[in-house]
Structures are given as C-alpha cells and as structure tokens.
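Let's do one together. I've listed all components of the complex below, 759 residues spread over two lines.
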Amino acid sequence: MTGPPALAANTSDAYADVERVFLPVGVAVFVLVAGTLLLLAWRGRRRTRPRSRASNPALEGAYVLCLAVIAGVLVAVTFGAEDRVGAAETGPRLQVRAVAAKWRWRFEYPAQRVVVQGTEDRVPALVVPAGEEVEFEGVSLDVVHAFWIPAMRFQRELFAERPTRFGLAFPEPGFIAGARCSFFCGLRHQDMRFAVDVRTPQGFRAWVRAKGGTP
Amino acid sequence: MGAREGRHALSSAALAPGGVIGLVGSTDHKRIAVRAAVTAAAFFAAGGVLALVMRAELAQPGLQVVSTGAYNALFTMHGSTMIYLFVTPFALALGLYFVPLQAGAPQIAGPRWALAGWWLYLLGGLVMYAGFLTRGGAAAATWAGFDPLSDAVNTPGQGMDYWIFGVVLATAGELIWGACLLATLLRRRAPGITLLRLPVFSWAMLVTSLMVLFAFPVLIAAMALLWVERQWGGVFTAPDGPVAYQHLFWFYGHPVVYVMFFPFVGAVAEAVAIFSGRRFFGYHAMVGSLLLFTSLSMSVWAHHMFAIDEVAVKYFSLTSIALVVPAGVEYFDMAATMWGGVIRFATPMLFALGFLIQFLVGGLTGIFVGSSVLDYHVNNSYFVVAHFHYTLFGGSFFGLLCAVYLWWPKVTGTLLREGIGRVHFALSVLGANLTFFPMFFLGRDGMTRRVADYPAAEHWGTLNAVASAGAALIALSLVVFVVNVAVSLARPRPAGDDPWGGHSLEWATTSPPPPRNFVALPPVRSPDPLYDLLERQAALEGRP
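Okay, and this is what the predicted structure of the assembly comes out as:
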C-alpha cells in the first residue's frame, strides 16, 4: 500500500488498495483449489486400489493455521482501508444535502443557498469542487434509497428522518456519469440517476454565482 | 448380510395407504419427502419461467417484453420462489427422506407434524402465487420485503399481503421440518449409532436444522410485524424502524443461505466418498467445520447492511472473512478424499465436481463482498447477483442435481440414463457460467440489480445478451433432465439395492425402502457401516 493518502475520503483509492490484495488472492486460490480438485479426480481414474488413510490431524491443523493467517491478512487490509473511508476531517468545508425521493434527486447547498432539483426525466448534476473534502448529509423523503457513485466506489443507504453523514473527496475535475440510486425503491427505481460535475474550486465558485448563490 | 434378507416382511398396506388419501395424507417420511420435492420442483419451474422472462427483457436495452411494474413483480416472485418455495424446502426434503434412513430409524420423529409441514408449505406457496390474481398484481417489494417500501402507503394492494401470508405459512412448514429432523437425529438413532457415527450428510442436516430453528422464527416475527405495520402502522415508524426491519430480516436472511447450502454439501460429500471408493477424509474436521460454520452463520448478518451508516462494520467484516477457515477445511476434506481414490465419473460425481468448482467462485466472491470497503461499491449491484447465483445455482443447484442423480435409484428403484445425464451436466455448466459470469463485470461497472432497463449509453447490451443466451441454455439443460426422467420412468432399468457401492445405511435396504425402512440393520461402528462390511469381507477372504 502507498502510505497515507492525500485525501482522507478518497474512496476509490481505498477500494483499489483492497481490491489489489483480494483479487489476486482470490484468483490464486481459485486456480490452486480448482486445479487440485480436477487433477486429483483425473489421476484417480486409473487407480485400482483406494488409499485407506482417512484422516491426518497434524496436516489439517497446519492447514487451518494457514487459512487463519490468510483470513487475518484480508481482515487487516480491510480494517486499514475502512479507517480511511468516510472518515470526516474537522474544519470548514463544503456541505451538501443529498435528498432522495421517489424517483428523483435534489442537492442542496445550505451555505451557498443553491438548490439543484432533478426530476424523473431530467438527470440532475451534483456540482462539487475538486481536491477538497465535501461533507454530505443524505436523507430520504419516503422509502429507503441509496446514494451510489460507481466511479467513486462508494454507496450509502438513505433513510427518512435518519440523516446519513459521509465525506467524499473528488480528486480531479471532470464529469462523472452513471451515479444512481442502488437500493430498490419501486416503480421507477431504474430512472433515479444523477451525474457528478466536478469543477475546479474557481469553476465551482463561478457556478454558485451563476446560480444566484453566495460562494 | 442380515439387512438384505426378508426385506419385504414389514411392508403392509396399513402403513402405506394408497389412493388420494395416501397421496395427501400418508405420514411415511419418504412419501412426505417425495411430495415436498415434487412440490418444490413445480415451484422451481414457475420461478424459472419468471427468470426467463426477466432475461428476455434484459437481453437488450429498452423495454421490450414487460412493463417496469410487471418486472418488479417478476424479480420479487422469482427470488421469493427460489428461496422460500424451492431450494429451502427441497434441501429439507432430502433430510426428510434420508435422515431416518441414515440414522437407522423406521420413521421420522413427529410424522404428523412433518405432514402438516408439507401442507403449510404447499398452502404458503399457493397463497403467494395467488397474488398474481389480485388487482394490483403479485408482490413487488423484493424477496426481502423491505420496509417502508412494503408498507401500505408505498405498496398498496393485496398481493403484498398474500406474499406475507405465503412467506409465514411456508416458513412455518419448513420450521416444523427442521424440528422433526433435529428430533430424529437426536432421539431416533438406532442402537450403536452415536452422533459421531452419523454420515456427513446427516451431520449437515443436523446443523441445518439448528440454523432453521434459530433463524426461521425471526422471519415469522418480522412478517407478523410487517403485516401489523401494513394494517395499523406504528411498528417501523421510528427513524430507525427501517434499519430494525433489515436487522430482523437479515438475521434470517443470512442463515437461510446456509440452510440452502449445507444439505447439498452433505450430499456432495457422500457422492465424493462413494465415487472415490473410499471413506470421507477428515470426518471429524468436517463435523467441526460444520459446527463452526453454523455458529458464524448467526453472526454475519449485518454484512448485508454495510452501506448503512453506524452498523458495526468491522465486527461483521471480521466474522464474514473468518468463514474462509471452515470453508477451506471442507474443500481440503473433499480434495483429500479424492486423493488416492478410485474415481468413477458417474453423473452424480460430475455434478459434485461442478458444485465444488462453481461454488468456489461464489465463496471467494463472498469473501470479496464480505470486506466492507469492497462492499461499499458492489453492494446492490449485479456483482452481488452474480455472487449469490454462483453460490445458489452454480453451488446449491448443482449439489441438488448431484443429490437427485445419487439418490434417484434409491427413491424410485430405477436408474437414470448416464448418457443423457452427461449431456444435462455439460449444458448446465455452459449455461450457468454464460449466464452468471458476465454479471460480475456488469455489477463492477455500475449496473444495479432489480432494474428492468439500463441506458444504451452504458454499453451493457453485449454482456446482458450473453447472460440471456446462457439462461436459454440452462432452460435447455432442464428440458434434457426432464427427458431423462421421462425415459427412465417409461423404460425402467432396475437399480437394485446399492447401484453405486454406497457407504451408509440407506444403501442397506431395498430401493425404494419398505414402509418401516429396514428389516434388520448391519452393525454400525463408524459413519460408513457398509464400507466396514466390505473391508471385513475382504479381510476374511484374505484380500489386502
């Protein structure tokens, strides 16, 4: 792993760090186990007398220890990344309320007095500045929804009257498509999408001014 | 061998009523089990048709086949059917048939209860499906019935109420079966059969019954609360109410995955030992791992809820990843059984190998989603759909077919055709992997589950078309299986008592067994009494 991250809430880096360990381990275990099973089955075709030994406690004990070590590594990797995901830093930063309702998104910027309202047929864009942590408060107005930005490798469920708080940092300016509600919420669940428009800090302030807010 | 003499002496008409009364009212555990399995197969056919309609809809972007509302009912009823009405009852039905036989018992404990269990289960399934006849259509709030989506405001209409009644009735029936199986295993074993002389399949059913008894009442309670919520409100209305519902649901929802898994692990273990021509390797380690699995199964439920703020994420990541240990032991024992075995590639063995290798994909991706940081991305996506279909279809369903091919001769007295079985196996493997492997990529790329449509701009059309083609192959494989059954029943080839060289007591009686199962039992000194007899015979004849 690559030392302490520049941004506490860079969730896609945290995901990549964990996947970088889990994926090769998983593929290696699959190849090893599936290969062993097929090899043993294939070689057993021509045998005429079965072996009689039916247990080997010492070997199994050693094997269980190996498994425990592998599990321990995977747990340690997960815990290390877990501490970096959604960890909120203290200090003044942009606050955004993500409001989900059947079947649309609304993004409110209370300090800037700006609101972005989506509808079922118009996908709204969440506008955020790049390179700084954004503090979200997510709520639902009805059923359970979930705020998922696949490119950020991050989702959180949103409930009515039970705010969900999380921090995210978007490293670079750019347009992120494909963000959506991931928790099934009824008839038009599939249409409940949003985009993320990551701007430079200056670009973000210009956008707030253009929307009639106070940057 | 005493067990094989005069075996028909006890089969009397009084114990085996015929006609309609016998069909719906016999308390012979074998007839209850066959009835349950046939009922489950019928529900499987219905749930499979729902899945095929879904795959037809998803084959290309846009809405072509059904409306969004209809699609929501399709996936809700598909999941509900497969879990409440097919895999769970079929898994328990295997126990209803073979646990008394392997325990050397003439009958299951509480036969009338077991019969009532079948009635409740059948009724529950019919009530759930009756939802299609109501004005609003069948339930459409997922197989989990998440509150508040499932409340009276967001899901009005009787279909949802029918679903709740259906789930309660079916689950109550399955709960009764769990109790009957546990009582049989603890109190009805023949003299000499200690707990540690039970075959691996019976041990798998023992831990399955434990999980049924711990987890299923919680689902019934959750459904009762949900129904009260729909009628009068006030149950899940506090801010934490929806989270509380999820806790209740997943406290059932995770153990049930193992209820739908362990009976088939047990069947596969029997098949691997039989078709390797040797005893199951590491019996005690296997029993220990089953018990460890059982205890962990009750402490991993909230890994379904990682995306909720304030769940004890690290604890549930730890318990979930710890499952590597008992799962690894089971694979080790299976491999070690084949190591040095005389392998025969009969159809049950083919499905056992398919189960082991495909479940490995499901299990390893299970560790993947058990890691909270990875789950924040792939939760609720097609990655999860791929993962649990590898466990439940690539795993459990292949294990189920292994069990069917293994025990069909015992239950019917006739052999299935090997050649058709091989074709069935090949098509199943091809279909399962074509259908479910592309879903890993779709999910990681951002496709959510439970959607009837996806934007053409996402370029998910090709992978979805491949998945739909795979689903058609699965359907074809099942047609081949039906042909196999039809041919084998129309032109029966007698199986004899023990066509495979079995190790456990069910192979010591006739096929099918008489109403009281056994005339006499061979001595039981190990989990493999028939293998002991073979060895002793070989020793007497001076063979090595």
